[in-house]
Design goal:
mainly alpha; flat; 0% strand
């Protein structure tokens, strides 16, 4: 009797978990899409205000940002973000703090081994004055 009940509950759980997971993911996708649409709407409203105030440059920047909002699948952009960061590590710095090429040329090369010391050691272990 107990094994029959256990079997029934296991089969019920096997079927309910995918249904619940699908419903949950659908809800999350819907909320993400609504949030993105709301953000685009706010950016467009702000762009109209700036355009009415005679600031078309700011309005154009806001409209570009609205177009550049993430896609419907945020995970699909993870590879692009990683490649952008890994490809150019100094891009993580704010623009005012980016090192100039001349400054980079003056930095030591840490990829090679340091040169060996030219000091000769004496038998006592102290360097000689030669």
């Amino acid at each position: 009797m107990f094994k029959g009940t256990q079997w029934f509950i296991e089969r019920l759980v096997e079927r309910l978990i995918p249904i619940i997971a699908t419903s949950f993911s659908s809800t999350v996708e819907t909320l993400h899409a609504l949030g993105q649409a709301e953000q685009q709407s706010q950016l467009e409203e702000a762009a109209r205000r700036y355009e009415a105030d005679g600031k078309p440059e700011i309005a154009a920047v806001l409209r570009r940002r609205a177009v550049d909002l993430p896609s419907d699948n945020p995970a699909s952009q993870a590879v692009d973000i990683y490649q952008n960061i890994a490809g150019d590590a100094h891009r993580l710095l704010p623009p005012a703090q980016e090192p100039a090429d001349a400054e980079l040329a003056q930095l030591p090369d840490f990829t090679s081994k340091p040169p060996k010391s030219r000091r000769k050691k004496t038998t006592s272990g102290q360097p000689s004055d030669a």
